[in-house]
Amino acid sequence: MWINVTVPVEAAHAEPLSDALMEQGALSVSVEDAFLGTEQETPQFGEPGSPTTPLWEHSRVTALFEPGDDLPGRVAAACQAIGLADLPEFEFAEVAEQNWVQLTQSQFEPIRINDRFWIVPSWHMEQFQQTPAADRIVLQLDPGLAFGTGSHPTTWLCLQWLCEQVQGGETLLDYGCGSGILAIAAAKLGAASVLGVDIDEKALEAAAENARRNGVDLALRHSRQPLAERFDLVVANILTNPLCVLAPLLSDRLAPGGRLALSGVLETQASQVIEAYAPYLRLEPGAVHEGWCRLEGRRR
Fold first, then answer.
1. Run of H or E including 153
2. pLDDT tens track for 92-130
3. Residue 39 pLDDT exceeds 80
4. Long-range own/partner contacts, residues 280-289 (CB < 8 A, 24 or more apart)
5. CATH 3.40.50.150 boundaries in the chain
6. What is the pLDDT of residue 54?
7. Residue 87: pLDDT above 80?
8. Is 64 helix (H, G, I), strand (E, B) or coil?
9. Cβ–Cβ under 8 Å, residues 264 and 191
């Protein structure tokens, strides 16, 4: 038997609190997006009284502990260590012993992007390969620290776009590459050269390892490094605010006739991104999936 401790905090405090809880003896820590309020207090985007800040600006940090005499004291010490003046209202819950590896793996099944393209975790590869198809493309990817497993609507929207746009021989930039899923997909679909850029060193390490597992060559670069090349295709799956800030850079990285796809944008935020890119190129909604949209543009 173990004890789960769940602490609601602002997203900016989630990572420091995770580290502090580990220092207090937590066996593991997870973070999920949350709204700090009751269900009745949580209006939906687009409704009167909807929140002015995105829901992901709040998080729930859940730490797993062995049963102890003073778990409240450990949580309080972790909160104090990161400078939280007011102690959040945290919750405790008992966790029965389970086969955690099997339980985690059961949550990630092969993901069909279309009839041709699949994302498959390593533990399903053997079974999946028992039914081979001559023209099927399989991208092997396990959940990890970097964003991008193919299950999120924004990733799915970008993968759909890549399947449509990559005909073979293109140059492609994946800005905010995370796990490398989009860059690797482009390479497997036939792009001649692919560059993945990210702000996170760990993401670049994950992308390099995932590329190796999939037998493709990627160029990888930290976002602090110069980026002067131009590309036939540019894809960025980030979030609305950074996409708006990046409008001059991403637009200028397109070669003449080059195509751009942006995701990580809620339907209600599409106009904000379209307006940010208007001085550089015209964006239009390309597809919508589960409330998220993909915006597309082309350089003349």
1. helix 153-165
2. 888 766 545 454 555 567 888 888 888 888 877 777 776
3. no
4. 280/247, 280/248, 280/251, 280/252, 281/251, 281/254, 286/157, 286/161, 286/261, 287/157, 287/160, 287/161, 289/153, 289/156, 289/157
5. 153-298
6. 43
7. yes
8. strand
9. no
Rounded Cα distance, 281 and 247, in Å:
9
C-alpha–C-alpha distance, residues 222 and 203, integer Å: 10
Give the CATH H-level superfamily of domain 153-298.
Answer: Vaccinia Virus protein VP39 (3.40.50.150)
Q: What is the pLDDT of residue 36?
A: 47
Does 144 score more than 70 pLDDT? Answer: no
How far apart, in whole angstroms, are the C-alpha atoms of residue 22 and residue 27? 7
DSSP 250: H
Residues of the chain with CATH 3.30.70.120: 2-97
Contacts of 267 (CB under 8 A, 6+ apart): 288, 291, 292, 293
Q: In the structure, what pLDDT confidence band is assigned to residue 33 with cuts at 50, 70 and 90? A: confident
CA dist., res. 108 & res. 104, Å (int)? 7
Which one of 3.50.50.60, 3.90.600.10, 3.30.70.120, 3.40.50.10890 gives the CATH number of domain 2-97?
Answer: 3.30.70.120
Q: What does pLDDT average to over the chain?
A: 85
Say what the pLDDT of residue 104 is.
55
Q: Which amino acid is present at 282?
A: R
Query: What length is written for the chain?
Result: 300
